[in-house]
Amino acid sequence: MTEEILHASCVAIDGRAVLILGRSGRGKSALALELMALGAALVADDRVELRRVGEAVIASAPEPIAGSIEARFVGILNAEAAGPAPVALVVDLDADETQRLPPQRSKNLLGLALPLLHNSETRHFPAAILQYLKAGRSA
């Protein structure tokens, strides 16, 4: 079994997780909080443990920070921690999306290619992420 810990945030809905990547201060926790307000559950914030199990990458929280998420200028908030969840989507906040209908991209994690979205400053981005997790993307 292959394992890795990333500086990232992760939430899940319907048993499918989105892994949010980006440099410090890019808004990983803020996007996770927005997704949680729309019905997602916290998997992990700040540090995400990843392990490969067969053809899946499973995300979970390191025990010391399970059930906690940072809200900048508010503090560390408690949240019910979702259990480990398979990563179905990766969002990279360091790469800005410039195309209205972007190509399908992927990010290699632990030897698996996972769907990748670049950052979008649009108001609907969190809702679009949740819909992606629920129903996927057309060609």
Automatic annotation (TrEMBL):
Residues 3-80 form the HPr kinase/phosphorylase C-terminal domain. GO terms for molecular function: ATP binding; phosphorelay sensor kinase activity. The lineage of its organism: Bacteria, Pseudomonadati, Pseudomonadota, Alphaproteobacteria, Rhodobacterales. SUPFAM superfamilies: PEP carboxykinase-like. GO terms for biological process: regulation of carbohydrate metabolic process. Keywords: Kinase, Transferase. It comes from the Bacteria. The keyword Cell membrane does not apply. This is HPr kinase/phosphatase C-terminal domain-containing protein.
